[in-house]
Amino acid sequence: MSMERVKAYFRKYGMEERIREFDVSSATVELAAAALCCDPQRIAKTLSFSVDGQAILVVAAGDARIDNSKYKVQFGTKAKMLSPEDVEKMVGHAVGGVCPFAVNEGTKVYLDVSLKRFETVFPACGSSNSAIELSIPELEEYSGLLGWVDVCKGYQ
Q1: Exposed (0-12), middle (13-18) or buried (19+): which is 136, by Cβ within 10 Å?
Q2: pTM score > 0.90 for this model?
Q3: How far apart are CA 134 and CA 87, in angstroms?
Q4: What digits encode the pLDDT tens for the residues 48-64?
Q5: How far, in Å, CA of 41 to CA of 64, rounded?
């Protein structure tokens, strides 16, 4: 159902055909990179957090990790990831297919600066075997982001 929501979302923009579906899982950065034959850092992973009981998504490069001190400065609280059950309930997508598209109302989306190194990246599309290649300006446009953040470490 989540994949269908994302397809319908991109259909409004004439982009549904750009969604790639795989015969193999793309649920992790490594699996997605293998399915797409690309470098893992170009996978735009969507991390789900709870801030004051509200879902916050941070889309970051595949090689980036959350820096707890930067996160606390940005959001005013310790990084607390949502449980798999809460992700689906609050965001609208299951773990492995979480993306910033066609999310539940009230979900806030942020893009991490770790993505700015690339011309294009590959976020998931609502299922554990899908992705779409988007330029950074397209990701900005279609993710409905509230802004860019710098909350990661460990990337080049």
Answers
A1: middle
A2: yes
A3: 23
A4: 999 999 999 999 999 99
A5: 8
